[in-house]
Amino acid sequence: MRRIMFPVCCGIDVHKNKLSCCIVIAHQITDEPVYHFREFSCHQPDLVKLVNWLNKFNCHDVCMESTGKYWIPVFNHLENSGIHAIITHPKYVRSRDGKKTDHNDSSSIADAFQLGQASPSFVPSKEWRQLRDLSRYRFKITCMIASEKNRVQNCQTMSNITLASVVSDPFGVSASDIFAELLTSSEVDETRIRSLLHGRLRKKHKEIMDSIQGYRLESDQSLKALLALNHIQYLDDIKDTVTKEMLNRLKPYQAFIKLACSMPGIGADSSLTILSETGTDMSIFPSASHFASWIGLSPRSRESNNKKKSVRINHAGTYLKPLLVQCALAAIKSNKDPYFRIKYNKIKKRRGHKRAIIAIARMMAICLYHMFKTGEPFNPSDYEELRNPRPMKPEKDGQAWSIATDFKPIDDLYRSLKVGPYRYLREWSVRRVLTEFWPAFVIVILGILGLVVHSWRAQKLVDRATAKLLVAEASRRRTLEKSRELAEKIETQQKINLVGQLSSMFAHEMNQPLAACKYFVDGLKALRKQKKVPDEEMLDFSLGQMEHELKRASQIINKVRDYSRKTVTREARVDLTSIVQEITQTLKMKFHNSVAVDVKCAPNVDVEGDTVETEILFWNLLKNAMEESQKVERPEVWVVLETDEDSAILTVENSGRKLSEEDVAKLGTQTFKSEKSEGLGLGLVVVRSILEAMNGAIQYAPRDQGGLKVTVRLKRKI
Known about the structure:
With 718 residues, the chain is an alpha+beta fold. The protein has helices at 44-56, 71-80, 102-114, 126-158, 173-184, 190-195, 205-212, 219-249, 254-261, 268-278, 288-295, 320-332, 339-351, 353-374, 383-387, 408-417, 430-436, 438-529, 536-564, 576-590, 611-629, 661-666, 684-693, and strands at residues 8-14, 18-26, 33-41, 61-65, 84-88, 302-304, 307-310, 572-575, 596-601, 606-609, 636-643, 647-654, 697-702, 708-715. The chain has 23 helices and 14 strands. A 5-stranded mixed sheet has the order 3-2-1-4-5.
């Protein structure tokens, strides 16, 4: 016969929108189960129908699975209706063999509950459930605050603000004030920053200034930081409200809060969470081990053939277990009470850090269980013995036996005698070789790994350098090609400019011999009209003069042709005085004597260069000066030619508009244009090119009265 715990009970398979219910009734004689099935919705009217249906069969015991949050309203309604309801873990209720349906699931829950196989989960009273909900809500708010603080720190990192590496709390009073100042101001005011420092941070003034110097707070990062800080303030207010409500509800349990705070590592906030999760009634837990297991701090028992396959803790205690682990970490760092630190160090030597922390957290859970149950503060039985060990009574010779605290001398003795765990050292074996010579093996392995890593790194560096060289070479080729194309364009443009200049000079130079020839021809024609025959002397003179002028014209043509063929000789002697005088007279006629030109030339000034280039040089300078001077009411140009030891100095000044330093600096640097929009700069690129070829120099300076002063230095031919 079956062992019946509940003759009439109900199993409910809870879903989001419906409830599958099964009432099982054991036969009074045969104990055979009789099932009654029915489905209800999760609406309040159907919950009332559910209670009426249970009362119809005189069923006062109900079992449900813990399916998310859907069981809570059903459980609350059944509890308020006076029905005993329990929540069980799904592992205790398995579906029947065969097809899985809602009816089968509900009947499996009912059968397991009737036979006492469904262990009930701990469900606190309504008062403590409400308090627990507030505590968990506060925990989630704390997690949200931590996330927002991380966002603020990310904004600081991206803005080159390293304040977190200097201060212990990036969100303390001083650090918060400094960051608020950076958000509102565009520059760092050292005096203002120093006034925001408090306490010990005043000694770190220089480090704090270095951490914020050169910060760059972009608009997006500033907006994110402001929004995150406002959200943090909002969440802090909510957290404070929840904390006040919890403290108000826990006023009757201040004694338990003091008990929890008497343990090292547990503070006021931690005690609130602990009480909200566990309550104060420890009688619902059969023992302290059950309490620790419910929290999730008991290792698994999984053994087969005397071998423990796993001793990991389970996933229970989502909220309380992490809290106790944090309390354990704080307890082992406490300097006031080293009890748990001593325990931790002993376990850590054998089991490592993680398992030692879990062990300390379990110890703290066991202590809390006994403290809440007995009402006594934290005072373990081995407290004094552990903190202050008593030495044993010495013997007559002054020596005494005590507990060994250091086993290294014993281990060294075993090793020297080659006994016990070091017996293998008596014979050569692989183990002995590895044991005795493991440093050499480690060094060799590390050396090989180092060589491999070094070779790999060297190859990567070579490949990277090769790639950079290839890119640089390609870039150099592209640059050279562009430079070559640009040089060709500049040379072509200069040729075009020179053609225009040569045309003007050619017309000027050819005008004089051709005019002379025309003069003699007109004279001979006049004599012919008068039917007079010129005497041989006059005819010979006229023909001689015409021949001379034609030779001169031929020389001019050859000079221009040689220059166009780049057969320029820049080492010839050039009479600069005559060139200045001739071009001055020509340009006076060109401008119809509208510009007053004052010329002062030293006699017999010869320079080293080419005649055509020298004429083009002075033609451009004087022409630009006369054109610019026409922009004022009284156009004037001053030309001075003087010498020093080895140079000829040609100065050209003109009246005109006032020029700034920036305008003067741009002269001679613009690209040549065939038509200029301004009066300055036409032909100055050609002037600069000619001077560079002749090893000359040119200087531009603005005149105080308006206009420009140009000074040219050329090498004299002595």
